[in-house]
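Sat 14:20. Reprocessing the chain from the morning session after the first attempt stalled halfway. Input below, unchanged.
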Amino acid sequence: MEIEKRVVGVYQENCYLIKKGNNGLIIDPGDDIDSILEMIGDTKIEAILITHAHFDHIGALEELESKLHVPIYYHNINGELNYKELVDIKEDIYKTNSFTFKVIYTPGHRNDSVCFYFYEYDIMFTGDFLFYLSIGRTDMEYADKYEMIKSINLIKTYPDKTMIYPGHGTDTTLEFEKKYNNYLKIR
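Finished this time. Tokens:
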């Protein structure tokens, strides 16, 4: 599995293209539709995955969906996204033609926050829930610091070797975060 990252928008959000052969998924198309389409190239996109609905993670979603006409996987708890191809995900395992992933609820930064865990590869896309040496803010609309603590404790149960691909900044590993991220030391 190949992973390509494109940093987009004023908030420098990480938009990801995951590929197996010529098939792919897009995660969090935040902005800069032309840059995202360039990254996609001739890849056959099977779906779009949304970790949460902050504008810097979905800014290019409408335009991308209108060009690709593929399912959009999102936990639509607040009823904010209304797309024809919307798949209102639950905490479960999902399959597209080429990919299998687990949805993990990780509320705290937002109540719709999820991580996408590609367990066959120990790869997790965390949106704004978990960053390199940090976590997402809990002082915004739909945020809850107590839910964040529960989510942190849940994510610590996953394998140390899990690669973390956050919504902003550099990638990391769960093992590194458990050792050095002070927020993961909260019980």
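The mean pLDDT is 96.
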